[in-house]
From TrEMBL:
Protein name listed in UniProt: TVP38/TMEM64 family membrane protein
Transmembrane segments: 21-48, 54-75, 96-120, 154-173
Cell wall biogenesis/degradation recorded as keyword: no
Chief location category: membrane
Domain of life: Bacteria
Family recorded in the similarity comment: Belongs to the TVP38/TMEM64 family.
Protein keywords: Cell membrane, Membrane, Transmembrane, Transmembrane helix
Domain VTT: 36-149
Length: 191
């Protein structure tokens, strides 16, 4: 993985005007090589600076989401596996807000495509899905690009504090209502 990243870094650095395109494509293909989003965004910050690196990372993460949208419809078995993971994590009872999904994308231990699957299930079509994927990709692109070195080099205590902060934000921005099905509310107990 390190060798692949180093070669990618050198190739992008020497490609001139095509560097942003290759960087966006690196985002798309990073999942094949199991490279974390964090590392690619760090690379974007190093190569292009915070502003352009963030823009290219947002475009790359949105492109990954669109590719995932296509793959999930081609390979239903992949959708089933991710749905099981989603049910285990979200318990089917939560309706996530866009802000919660943004925070989830910031958490490096949350599977990237778990949020994408939730977006697929809560949007009507590809256009709406792409729009929300774009918005949900902004926080990780900006944070990992701008503060990637700080997050990456934090000691364990700092990482735990940051993860706790994200968890508190996640709970703070949840929807405040609960839907109860008619049958569940008026269920008769068997005794």
């Amino acid at each position: 993985m390190e060798e692949f990243l180093e070669r990618s870094f050198q190739f992008i650095e020497q490609s001139g005007w095509f560097a942003p395109l290759f960087f966006v494509l690196l985002h798309v293909f990073r999942q094949v090589f199991f490279i974390p989003v964090l590392l690619v965004c760090l690379l974007g910050g190093y190569l292009f600076g915070t502003v352009y690196g963030s823009i290219y990372s947002i475009l790359g993460l949105t492109a990954v989401s669109v590719v995932f949208y296509g793959l999930i419809h081609i390979f239903p078995s992949m959708r089933e596996k991710l749905t099981k993971l989603k049910k285990r994590f979200l318990k089917e009872k939560h309706q996530l807000t866009i802000v919660q999904m943004m925070i989830m994308r910031l958490m490096p231990f949350i599977h990237f495509h778990l949020v994408s699957l939730y977006l697929i299930e809560s949007t009507k079509n590809l256009k709406e899905y792409t729009k929300y994927s774009f918005f949900v990709s902004i926080p990780p692109a900006v944070v990992y690009t701008a503060f990637g070195d700080m997050i990456h080099e934090l000691p364990l205590a700092g990482t735990l504090i940051f993860a706790s902060f994200l968890a508190v934000l996640f709970l703070f921005f949840r929807k405040k209502r609960t839907n109860i099905k008619w049958d569940d509310f008026f269920s008769t107990s068997k005794q």
